[in-house]
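Record pair follows.
FIRST:
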Amino acid sequence: MAEAMKGIEKETVENAVAVTTVAAPTRTEPTAGRGAALRVEQAGISFGDFRAVQGIDLDIPAGEFLCLLGPSGCGKSTLLSAMAGFIEVSEGSLTADGAPVRGPDPELGMVFQSSEVLFDWMTVHQNVTFGPRMRGVSRAEQNRVADEFLGLVGLRHCADRYPGQLSGGMRQRVQIARVLANEPGVVLMDEPFGALDAQTRQVLQQETARIWEASGCTVVFVTHDIDEAILLADRVAVMTAGPAASIKSLYTVDLPRPRDESDPAALRLRNKLREDIGEEVRKAMRDQGLDDQLDREAKGA
C-alpha cells in the first residue's frame, strides 16, 4: 500500500506540471466570480482491495473556503487528489461546475505541501508564467499575469530571483501565484504550510485569507490544525478515521473576518472539533489494538 501511495504522489506532482496544457471541459452551471462549484456525491476511492474513503457527500458552492480536517491517514489528501483529477473515484461522482472531473484540468489548481514542485532552473517570473506560456499566451500578457499575481502574493520584487534564493514561506507564495496565474475556478491546497515555522505559517494563513477574498476562487484546504481551519474556513468538514473514511461532521464557521481566536464562538467551535477528532483518533487506536495505551492515558499514567 505504501509503495502504491508513493507512486500516486509522484504522478500527482508530474500531473501538476502538465495540467496547464489540458483543455477545460464544457461547463454547464454558472459560477460566482472566478469560483467554481464542486459537488461530491457518494464518492468512494479504492486502491485494489484497500478502500481509502467511501460515501463522501460534499456540496461546495462557488467561492467557498472549505477546510478538510481529520486524523492522520483518514484520506484527506486522497480526496483532494480526486478533486484535482489526479486519481479517479471508484464509485459515486465528482463534478466541477456540473462537468465530471475525469483528469487534470486548468480549472482545478493544486498547491502542494512541498515547494519542491517549483522549477529551480527558472526565475520566479518564469515559474509563475509557465502555464500561460505553455498555452501560447503573448509575452505582454505573461508580463501582466506575473505582475498581477506576484503583486497579489507580495513578491513583485523577487521576480528575477530563483526559488533557491527564497525562504520556504516565499517559495510557497510563488507556488500559490503560479496556480492562480492559470485563473482556476478551484484552488486545492494540501497542507501547504505544514513544513513552515509557526511565525511564517501564521503570516501565510493571513495572506491566504486575503488572497482568497481578492481572487474569488473556491478553495478546498487540507489541514491537521484545528485553529488553522477556524481561522480560514467558511465551513469545516471533519473526516472519520480511515480506512473507508467518510464525513463525520460539517460545521459552519459563523465568525466575522478577520477572525479573533479568543472569540467565545471560536472557542466553542474549537472544542467541538477537538471532540470530534479525538473520538476518531481513539477509535483508530482501538482498531489497532491499542486499548491498553488509551486506558493508561485516561488514568493519567
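SECOND:
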Amino acid sequence: MDNLQLLTIIAEEALTTMLEKEIAQLGAKGYTASVVTGKGLKDTRNNLWEGENIKIETVVSEDTCNKILAHLKSKYFERYAMIAFHHPVNVVRSSHFQ
C-alpha cells in the first residue's frame, strides 16, 4: 500500500465541468463526483436558480494535490462558494492513481 492524498472539493454545481477538466490537466487520473447538500457559513441553497453543490473526490500524490489546491486558491476561492480539503489515505491498488 502507498500513501496518497484524498482531495475533496465541494463547490457550486456550475463549476463541475470546468473543475473536472482542470484537475485532470493538473495530474488527477480520475475522480468521483456527486451532488451533495449541506449548510455552511453562507447558509443553505434553497432554490433551483442557485443550483446545487457538487463534491469531487480524487486520490492523488501529494505533489498533484498541492498543484490542484494552488490552482483552486488562485482561480476560485475568492469568487465562488468552494471548500477543499485533503488527508492521507492508504491505497491498495495505488498504480491506478499514479
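COMMENT: The chain is about 25% helix and 35% strand.
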